[in-house]
Design a protein that fits this description.
The protein has about 450 residues and is mostly helical. It has one domain. About 70% of the residues lie in helices and about 0% in strands. Helix 8 runs parallel beside helix 22. It is globular. The mean pLDDT is about 85.
Length: about 450
């Protein structure tokens, strides 16, 4: 029964899911029409919102692109590749392969979402070469399923944003968050850690149960990675020696390590997006040992950022249309966000806010972008009901991560590495959406009672 349902989801998605860019364009048109119908604004007004907002997330886009590219560079360091190859020798059966990829992906995404997406896909490719009769589509879907946990980890943009505090956060939340909220009250709160543990345990088991029978299994052996070019030392120019020697990498890594130690010594365990990116930059430089090796890894990782660079402006435009208010102060995002929250009590607010965030995430699939859209609505509503701002903020974070399972935007890097299309994995991701949603809904509700 379970596998028949999974197979039906796979076939449905393969038939009807378009390319992620087409999906993005369709969402643009949907929000454009909704703005006209629901807020009674003119078509020109919606187009103006779209055009003015198109470039509003460039800074955040750069941060997200760096998270991906720097994570990719780390995952492709020789030391990590050797580790992945050894780990790929552990599973002997298709079921063991799916479980192993799922566990690695969840843990890696908890450390850093860009790193997790990339290392999960690379690990899945490595396992596909070594384990016979494992479904390659499900392997990549399992690698992507770890993305459910990213907002609960070190690179979660919403908990890191409120940990910084500042005037921008206070203004966006209409004064509800007037001082920084430490990560001990979000990422490392017992309820959030318990939710993370639940995903770590359940996702591998669910993914394993989805493995199709031999008749429906799609096996694929990816081509071998290109071998590194070896230069003849005798023919090296001085410039070649500088690029291919460890001196400059080690000096840079040493300077970076000193700053990282200084940062944590003076600021405590403060993790912002910039700090996370800096750590992965320095560690990546150190592990690659030479500037040329690291430059090649960065160039390769930048290929996966193409979808981010193209689609983020469109999603910024969608977000601008979502929050564009008519003369009465009503916006499409306001209607979505307040519709469920307006019937909430203090006890039900976390769950209903989580659901509303999951809906909004279809149109604004960016943690930072969604925070900008929903924080001005969700946080004041939470304050009126007596819900702690840390809980309200994490409901947005949970909802954003939840429906990413069927929003193909963030799967682009993994799909690029795997050589697959979104429709190849999204059928399996629907099941992860259902299971992950149940776990996260329970977790965020418990969080609300504890804080």
């Amino acid at each position: 029964m379970f596998k028949r349902f999974t197979n039906s989801c796979v076939k449905l998605v393969q038939k009807y899911l378009p390319d992620p860019f087409i999906f993005c364009v369709v969402l643009t048109l949907v929000v454009f029409i909704l703005g006209i119908l629901l807020t009674r604004q003119t078509p020109l007004a919606m187009i103006v919102y779209w055009g003015k907002g198109f470039w509003s997330l460039l800074g955040f886009s750069m941060q997200m692109a760096l998270v991906l590219v720097l994570g990719h560079a780390m995952a492709n360091a020789p030391a990590f590749k050797r580790l992945l190859s050894r780990l790929a020798d552990i599973p002997k059966t298709p079921g063991q392969a799916i479980v192993t990829v799922s566990i690695v992906a969840v843990i890696a995404c908890w450390i850093n979402w860009g790193f997790g997406l990339v290392i999960g896909a690379i690990f899945a490719r490595e396992i596909a070469r070594k384990v016979k009769n494992v479904d390659y589509r499900l392997l990549i879907a399992s690698a992507y399923s770890g993305f459910l946990i990213w907002h609960q980890g070190f690179s979660g943009s919403i908990p890191l944003t409120i940990s910084e505090g500042g005037e921008a956060v206070a203004t966006l939340t209409q004064g509800v968050i007037s001082s920084p909220i430490p990560t001990s009250m979000t990422i490392f709160h017992p309820a959030v850690l318990l939710t993370s543990l639940g995903l770590l345990i359940c996702l591998p088991l669910v993914n394993r149960a989805m493995h199709p029978d031999e008749e429906h299994t799609v096996s694929f052996v990816p081509p071998a990675d290109a071998a590194a070019v070896q230069l003849d030392k005798a023919s090296m120019t001085p410039a070649d020696k500088m690029e291919n020697g460890p001196l400059f990498s080690m000096l840079t890594a040493t300077l970076g390590l000193v700053y990282i130690v200084y940062h944590f010594a003076t600021n405590g365990f403060s993790l912002t997006l910039d700090v996370v990116n800096f750590i992965f930059l320095i560690v990546g430089i150190f592990l690659h040992k030479t500037p040329r090796s690291y430059l090649n890894a960065i160039a390769d990782g930048a290929k996966g950022a193409g979808g981010i660079l193209l689609q983020f402006p469109f999603y910024a435009g969608i977000a601008a249309m979502m929050i564009g208010k008519n003369a009465a102060g009503i916006s499409v995002a306001g209607i979505f966000s307040t519709g469920l929250v307006s019937i909430a009590t203090k006890a039900t607010f976390p769950f209903l806010s989580f659901i509303s965030a999951g809906i909004v995430n279809f149109f604004v699939p960016s943690g930072g972008g969604q925070w900008a859209v929903q924080a001005p609505i969700i946080l004041p509503a939470a304050q009126n009901l007596g819900v702690h701002p840390a809980v309200a903020s994490m409901t947005i974070a949970f909802g954003d991560a939840w429906t990413n399972m069927i929003q193909p935007f963030w799967a682009l890097p993994a799909l690029g590495i795997a050589g697959l299309g979104a429709k190849d994995i999204m059928g399996y991701c629907i099941i992860d959406l259902i299971v992950g949603g149940i776990i996260m809904a329970i977790g965020i509700t418990i969080f609300g009672f504890m804080l």
